[in-house]
Amino acid sequence: MADVLQTIKGILEGDVLVDVAPGRMTLEDSLRDVYGLDSLGFVELRVRCEEVFGITITEDEFSPEHFSTLGGVVELVERLIEAHRGAVPEGA
Q1: Which of 5, 10, 65, 84 is the most buried (most CB within 10 A)?
Q2: Is 75 in contact with 69 (CB distance < 8 Å)?
Q3: Which pLDDT tens digit goes with each residue over 15-49?
Q4: Residue 91 half-sphere exposure, CB side, CA atoms within 13 Å?
Q5: What is the Cα–Cα distance from 8 to 2, expressed in whole angstroms?
Q6: In terms of Cα–Cα distance, which of 55, 63, 54, 73 is closest to 5?
């Protein structure tokens, strides 16, 4: 979880350009209220997570349930990474 969390914090700081330093980010932080993400920021976060982690976030998964807090995004990404690993045949 730590690697995924740190990577997403880096995306928020470097790509989405939030004004909160990664060292001050917590899992409970609201992406909208604490980091100031607007609709474009949410899309940028989704796209960068897909690119960086090699996953696909469906329209159903791109919801307030998963994208309201930093922890929600981390949990979703970790679940999708695990699902992707399970879908890849051994030796592929």
Answers
A1: 5
A2: no
A3: 999 999 999 999 999 999 999 999 999 999 999 99
A4: 0
A5: 10
A6: 73
pLDDT digits (tens, 9 = 90+) for 70-79: 999 999 999 9
Residue-level pLDDT at 86: 81
Predicted structure pTM score: 0.90
> Domain ranges in the chain?
2-87
DSSP reduced 3-state for 18: coil
Strand partners, 69: 30
CB-facing half-sphere around the CA of 31: CA atoms within 13 A = 29
The residues that bridge with 30 in the sheet, in sequence order, are 69
- The domain 2-87 is placed in CATH, from the list 3.60.10.10, 1.10.10.350, 1.10.1200.10, 1.25.40.10, at 1.10.1200.10
